[in-house]
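Reminder to self: tokens first, then the designed residues, so the page reads top to bottom the way the pipeline ran.
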């Protein structure tokens, strides 16, 4: 069982039904699945697999949901980060969760630069949506361009961790909750 299959099943029932609204844009389940599959394929091409951990630092935008489901489709662990957290809190979570990949957007450029310099960060791949000329990052839009809209997901055991959730904290100790 893979949580990504929930999106697939819902899409199969009614691909034209609205999955989400963003501003004045309505995105159907069919379109959401296509975008998710393109990103999942692009992430796989980048070398991600079921042993990967992906941090997602985005506001409430469609790319958050797409990144979340694409990560699950790979069988990787999604680590959603609170965009309202202080840089210090994000760094603690990134270090504790041992993520290798970060998906974010241009709003968090300063934080991205801090994470690139961090001694405890294992991040080797930073994917930025709407990226300006940041050094050492992969541009989201370029990465997904031309990727297939079909994806063969990875089956997971009900005991496998799918998501690591962290609550913001001011203490030195961060606590993650593993969701299977």
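Designed residues (180 positions):
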């Amino acid at each position: 069982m893979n949580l990504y299959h929930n999106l697939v099943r819902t899409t199969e029932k009614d691909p034209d039904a609205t999955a989400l609204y963003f501003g004045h844009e309505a995105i159907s389940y069919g379109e959401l699945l296509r975008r998710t599959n393109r990103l999942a394929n692009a992430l796989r091409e980048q070398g991600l697999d079921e042993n990967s951990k992906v941090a997602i630092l985005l506001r409430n935008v469609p790319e958050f949901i797409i990144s979340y489901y694409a990560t699950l489709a790979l069988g990787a662990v999604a680590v959603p980060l609170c965009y309202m957290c202080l840089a210090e809190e994000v760094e603690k979570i990134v270090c504790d969760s041992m993520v290798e990949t970060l998906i974010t957007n241009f709003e968090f450029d300063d934080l991205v630069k801090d994470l690139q310099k961090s001694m405890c960060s294992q991040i080797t791949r930073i994917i930025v949506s709407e990226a300006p000329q940041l050094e050492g990052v992969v541009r989201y839009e370029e990465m997904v361009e031309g990727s297939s809209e079909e994806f063969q997901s990875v089956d997971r055991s009900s005991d496998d961790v799918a998501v690591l959730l962290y609550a913001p904290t001011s203490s030195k100790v961060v606590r993650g909750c593993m969701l299977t």
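The chain has six helices and nine strands.
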